[in-house]
Write a structure and sequence with these properties.
By secondary structure, the chain is α/β, with parallel strands linked by helices. The chain has 14 helices and eleven strands. The chain has a seven-stranded mixed beta sheet, with helices on both faces. Strands 8-9-11-10 form a four-stranded antiparallel beta sheet. Helix 6 crosses helix 7 and helix 6 crosses helix 11. The longest helix is centred in the last third of the chain and has 36 residues. The protein binds pyridoxal-5'-phosphate.
Length: about 475
């Protein structure tokens, strides 16, 4: 049976009218929903069996299946009690910008295809660069995420500081807590694992600058070519901020590229209260900054900033004959000359829209709120017997474990793993584990401005109850 496209288009209009109120009420009522829902076996089987049809199906049917079977089965990363990984609270104004951008679908690779979207991207990047304290040479672009931002920045670092003949001897420095995307990026760039030096961290999981300095000295003495230090502003595990000022001075003295992975933490720059914590970031050569983590954007929204825009142009500008018409005037940019992508969506528009509606003060307060909720979680845990804080609240993250008297150390990893599973299975909140100092610990990351004090308190009560029950079971 063929479905006339005219009918399909008419139905599409009706469906979209229904969709918007459905989606808005989903956000409205999100706190009542379970945080975590996984597709059951029969759903997965049905999706696999459906295949890709030769003849189309009615749009309403496809739409309803997607609603029920696809989007219904996901972790609600926007949920106020999603505390796993780095959750992604989303502003509905970002969603508005996203829907409009995908609807109008500008090609944001070059100025002639999207002059005003390119201009907005420049303005958002300018705003971010000025918060970071970069000079007027600062530039950058939007990419899909922190991993791509790190890769983009490290490409520029390599091209600037490592001549072709030195590449096999180049060394980049990370800490024990650096995000895995940095090593992945360096691998993509052709560096061997032994060209990535892992520097130990201090008691708050910050890179030890004395050890960094010693490693650089040792590498130089051995004829290797240090070229980049990757500092983190807000580590994924603990929210720790590496000593940016000291690393900045060291990099300046040593002539090294300083990259700051601020995928998670660079957003602190928006808050007047928190900004001070990132002092020294202005000394860096490049910064990664995920707007889909703490600036309330839907996915695929991250910025890479560089102190000197020419460094990106040097690495990424290409001029094939089929792009020759895309000439630019003074003050304009062809974004395909600044990063790995040619065709790209206009990722900055939704962030711009969100900032226009909210203003930066309110965005800053949202960030302060996340930090306050992590401190509250820490205080609440300190009041419960048997709980141990492994790393105190830093930014919107706290790490802890249940270690009651009478349970031997060797059993604690398993116990804490089961506590995380039990909380997540309850659907009330999602909490996952990580490893710190060889211990399995629970981790709460709470950047969502909709997370209320009550959510934190009830979640800690639930944790405490489940922890006791699981301990009883073991002993019984
Ligand atoms: C999340 C994160 C990344 C990776 O960013 P994606 O957007 O997931 O690619 C890199 N670095 C840090 C510190 C992060 O928290």
């Amino acid at each position: 049976m063929e479905f006339a496209m005219e009918v399909q288009k008419r139905q599409l209009g009706e469906l979209l009218e229904e969709f918007i109120p459905t989606l808005l009420s989903r956000y409205e009522g999100m706190k009542e929903e379970p945080v975590y829902r996984e597709g059951d076996e029969s759903t997965i089987r049905r999706l696999r069996e459906r295949g890709i049809p030769r003849e189309g199906r009615p749009v309403r049917q496809v739409f309803e299946e997607m609603e029920k079977e696809v989007y219904a089965n996901q972790t609600l990363v926007q949920h106020p009690r999603c505390f796993a990984c780095i959750p992604s609270p989303v502003s509905l104004f970002s969603w508005m910008g996203e829907v409009m951008t995908s609807g109008y679908d500008p090609h944001a690779g070059c100025w002639i295809n999207a002059s005003t979207a390119s201009c907005i991207e420049q303005e958002v990047i300018r705003w971010m660069c000025s918060l970071a304290g970069y000079p007027h040479t600062g530039s950058g672009l939007f990419v899909s995420g922190g991993s791509m931002a790190n890769l983009t920045a490290l490409t520029a670092a390599r091209d600037k500081l490592l001549p072709q003949e030195d590449r096999a001897r180049g060394v980049a420095y990370v800490s024990e807590q650096t995000h895995s995307s940095v090593a992945k990026g360096l691998h993509i760039l052709g560096f061997a694992p032994q060209q990535v030096r892992v520097i130990p961290t201090d008691e708050l999981f910050r890179m030890r600058v004395d050890r960094l300095e010693a490693a650089i000295r040792e590498d130089r003495a051995a004829g290797r070519k240090p070229f980049a230090v990757i500092a983190t502003a807000g580590t994924t595990n603990t929210g720790s901020i590496d000593p940016l000022e000291e690393i900045g001075s060291l990099c300046e003295r040593e002539g090294l590229w300083m990259h700051v992975d601020g995928a998670y933490g660079a957003s602190l720059l928006v808050s007047e209260e928190q900004r001070e914590k990132l002092r020294g970031i202005e000394r860096s050569n490049s910064i990664s900054w995920d707007a889909h983590k703490w600036l309330m954007q839907t996915y695929g929204c991250s910025a890479v900033l560089v102190r000197d825009g020419q460094d990106l142009v040097h690495s990424f500008a290409v001029h094939p004959e089929y792009l020759e018409d895309a000439v630019i005037q003074e003050g304009q940019l062809n974004y395909w000359d600044l990063g790995p992508e040619l065709t790209r969506p206009a990722r900055s528009l939704k962030l711009w829209a969100t900032l226009q509606v909210m203003g930066t003060d309110r965005m800053g307060q949202a960030i302060d709120h996340g930090c306050a909720m992590a401190r509250l979680a820490e205080e609440s845990l300190r009041r419960c017997p048997g709980w141990e804080i492994v790393c105190p609240a830093q930014q919107a993250i706290v790490n802890f474990r249940y270690a009651p008297a009478g349970v031997e150390e060797g059993a604690l990893d398993g116990l804490n793993q089961r506590i995380a599973q039990a909380v997540t299975a309850s659907g009330y909140a999602q909490i996952l584990t990580t490893q710190l100092k060889g211990k399995k610990v629970l981790r709460i990351c709470c950047p969502n401005p909709e997370t209320a004090e009550e959510d934190i308190r009830t979640t800690i009560q639930l944790l405490d109850r489940l922890a006791r029950e699981l301990t009883q079971e073991r002993i019984a």
